[in-house]
Amino acid sequence: MKRSRRKPLFKSIFTIILALSFGSLFFLQACSNGNLSGVNPSNGQGKLNVHMTDSPAANIQALTVNIVKIEAHKNGADSTSGWQVISDSSETVNILNLTNGKTRLIGSQNLDAGTYSQIRLILGSNNTVTVSGQKFPITIPSGSQTGIKINANMTVKAGESFNLLLDFNAAQSVHMTGFGNGRFMLKPVIHAVNMQLDGSIKGTIQPASAKASLFAITGNDSTSTFADTTSGHFKLVGLAPGTYSLYISPRDTSYSDSTVANIQVNSADTTNIGTITLKKK
Q1: What is the reported pTM?
Q2: CA 5 to CA 221: how far, in whole Å?
Q3: Which carries the bigger pLDDT value, residue 205 or residue 138?
Q4: Could you read off the pLDDT of 38-84 as tens digits, one per residue?
Q5: What is the domain partition of the chain in residue ranges?
Q6: What are the C-alpha distances in Å from 197 to residues 18, 72, 123?
Q7: Do the beta carbons of residue 38 and residue 180 sit within 8 Å?
Q8: What is the DSSP-derived secondary structure letter of residue 240?
Q9: Residue 96 exposure: Cα atoms within 13 Å on the Cβ side
């Protein structure tokens, strides 16, 4: 999910708890053929729709984030007055419910045409993480004050919409503040990607009961998800165009790891690799 990414580590439960080794995604997404209700091109407006998606985490049952406001900052505008509201409707979302390309609309707004340089997420107080069945509050420094700011480069055109993917790297964002004390802190590491330029990989892992973790790897970057444990289907989204290796690590350790090399990903396209059957050890 982008973009300080690492190849997967499976050393111990201790490593998983401290690193919370999963990536999650926020989507700010709109399509040129999508809902443009209320947009008036003659007034120089375009639309920005905000969606959310996620990749799941081993041993993490829930990560709830209370979003109370979403704003975009117009390039060149005053640092205070230049923020324009995308959504000010408070909602608490368990982002771990959004997997394999599923998204949830969390905000939508018409904006004046122009270039926007930042997105800001203002968070409330109801933020929690559930680890191995136990729910813990999670502290977010300045989350409810100055908010979480993400640098972006969005050009909104009159009568059109713009797609922006906010890649929330939870593996580097969630920290235990002291071992064994049940205190967690969220210091978000988020990278903005132009969704219209990125592609995806989908397929099926069999048997589904192997509970496969999947990592799309290119260079030193990787994006992760879990295959559905009933159907075996998976989809990795927000991938920059290029050549990837798909590393498959079953959580059922009676099955062997597997790698599919040389998967080509193209802009705004989905590469279907078909069905991969894992072998017993």
Answers
A1: 0.73
A2: 5
A3: 205
A4: 556 667 787 776 666 655 555 677 888 899 999 999 988 888 888 99
A5: 13-196, 199-277
A6: 33, 20, 29
A7: no
A8: P
A9: 17
